[in-house]
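Changelog-linked ticket: pyridoxal-5'-phosphate example.
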Amino acid sequence: MIPTPAFVVDEPLLALFAERFESALERHWPNSILSYSFKTNALPWLISYLRERGFWAEVVSDHEYELALALGYPAERIVYNGPVKGRERLRAALAAGSIVNLDAKREVEWAAELGRELPDAQLAVGLRVNWDLEARVPGESTTGAAGSRFGFNVDNGELDEAIARLRAGGVRLAGLHMHRNSRSQAVDVYRASATLAAELIAERGLELDWVDIGGGFFGSVDGRPTFDDYVGAILECLAGAVDPARTRLIVEPGGSLTAVPIEFHASVVDVKWVGDSRFVVTDTSRTDLDPLFRRSRPFAVDLTTTSTATVPSQIVSGFTCMEDDRLLTLEGAPGLRVGDRLVFRNVGAYTMSYQSTFIELPPAVYVRDATGAYTQVRERASVADYLRGNTWLPARILAR
Ligand SMILES: Cc1ncc(COP(=O)(O)O)c(C=O)c1O
């Protein structure tokens, strides 16, 4: 048994999810780019594993871009998105042949400036489109009335202004980036974004190298929609506007790929009664499992205990000093004892990348293979790592 606390990557399950994405694209849109959204979980082992499978990197900061290079992604297999690109990194990425989707007005200026400097380079960029999801699919927006802040708005002319500024610098608009998060992750959201992309292409006479539909997909072992459902619908909506053999579809899955195959293994460190409440204190915390303390739906947990007597109610808690660091309430379960184990399932998305130094340093990570054998791919960060300033990337990480 591995020591706790630790994240565990279930490699066969990760491979299953990766294979589903690969085969859906192969079936519907072979001329596509399957890129992995680094921000979701930037564990070096995971990033290297996906590179070896042929995934591209989808990055949203200079730091993520440099991480991709450091872990062996060639520049021409990096999709560079997000509003916080630095000028020098943006210029280098364009010169090196990365796919770049601009998201800030200063980036448009920088690209146009480079276009003027290098008229023979035939620079080409994509633009993130800011569009009204709520108007097209009511009830799906996660942003409230103020709308999304990403990209260039279609309705107020800012998208057309960005296109004109690029043209003035000799830079071709080669792609549209349509990513939106949604409430239900329904296929209709992707129908809406693909339909809007098709309208923009037709109305503006665009000749695109790529349509980047983004991430935000649902991912589960046997639920719907499947990735096949999504890509089939996207193709239907775009087939009349682009030639799929010429224009590449880009997808950027994050959580839908990494959430389910990653578990957290924890142990009970103390059990105490306070009045009628039974508290079970563990060696994990919301800082590991729900770093934004936002989760309201219950965790999926497997218990391993030697106890047979059930107790009506137990509050399973984290180790931190915050009173609201409570993980779940078990009703009618065996009374947990010190040393009993809990495995929290489906916790791979937006957990490790928000890892905390609050009270404890980030935990170890193991990979479990098809035989059930465990390999450690990251040690728990140490005080020496912390003092070296390597808190976010412990030096002894074992990249593949
Ligand atoms: C531009 C972009 N691409 C991809 C993703 C990944 O989304 P998800 O983790 O929902 O798949 C995000 C997440 O917000 C994003 O902003």
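Closing comment: Example verified and attached. The domain at 11-258 is CATH 3.20.20.10 (TIM Barrel). Residues 37, 40, 58, 81, 179, 181, 214-217, 252-256, 349 surround pyridoxal-5'-phosphate (CB under 6 Å).
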